[in-house]
Each structure stands twice: as structure tokens, then as C-alpha cells.
Amino acid sequence: MSKLSPVSYDDLVKRLRDFSFEGPYSGGKHLYMIKGNVRLTIPNPHKQKISVDLLMRILKQAGITREEWIEKGY
To answer: What structural domains does the chain harbor?
Structure first.
């Protein structure tokens, strides 16, 4: 099984769009993306990469498995 690696904010947004999420939209303290009835809060853009731990939590909330994420070439 391949390992996940940290991603930048821009890569996260691009990859979530590949999974049919729309946005990001502003909404309070954090931006969010939408797919159907799922509203996914994403971290604010910053200079550091998004850690694997946070990425796994985002993917879980988005309903995307590790295998699906890796299968798309990430």
C-alpha cells in the first residue's frame, strides 16, 4: 500500500475538485467546499504543507478513501 504524503493547500483544492467538490467558498473562519449535501471545511491557506494526519481527517469527512486518493495519482 502506498503512503500518503503532505500536500499544499493549492494541491488539496485541485484534488478535491477532481472528486467533484466545488469551491472553495468563504464562510466564517475557514473556507469550505461542497459536493451534494457534504460541506467540507478546509484549512486556511498557509505556507506549510497540510500534514498526513489532517489530510486523513479531511478525506474521511469527504467520504474519500485512502485507496481512492492514491488511485487518482496522489
So the answer is: 9-71 (3.30.920.30)
Cell triple for 38: 457534504
For residue 58, the Cα-to-chain-centroid distance in whole angstroms is 5
Give the tens place of pLDDT for each residue, 62-74.
999 999 998 887 5
Contact criterion met (CB below 8 Å) for 65 and 59 = yes
Say if CB 16 and CB 33 are below 8 A apart: yes
In DSSP terms, 25 is beta-bridged to: 32
Give, as one character, the DSSP assignment of residue 72. T
Contact in structure between 31 and 44 (CB atoms under 8 Å):
yes
Of 36, 2, 41, 7, the residue nearest 19 (C-alpha): 36
